[in-house]
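INFO  loader      accepted 1 record
INFO  loader      residues=111
INFO  predictor   begin
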Amino acid sequence: MNWLAIVATAALSAALTCSVIAWWLQNRVRPRFMAQLDEEFRQRLKEASDVMALRVEEAVSRGVREGVTSLATREVIQGTTRNIARTGAGFVEDSLGKILGRRPPRTGDQE
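INFO  predictor   done
INFO  writer      dumping tokens
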């Protein structure tokens, strides 16, 4: 037999074998592998989302508890409101005094 025919037959056989293996990997093995990977990914994602949900729930609960416990008492709020009102009234009084040309009171005359 001719050596060229033998080499050509071997090359065609190798090419055909490689083509069949490539087709088998692409159309049979890869979809199954991707489905397994997808299932594993979904399972891990669900586990991670459950852990994150638990952490967020705990953090929100802790934040609400801290917020409720750190609320100021009624007396403190009333005192702060009075101080703000006095300061605002003082600003208005000073502004009106300047507009009307009144002199500001001396520091020694104040309470």
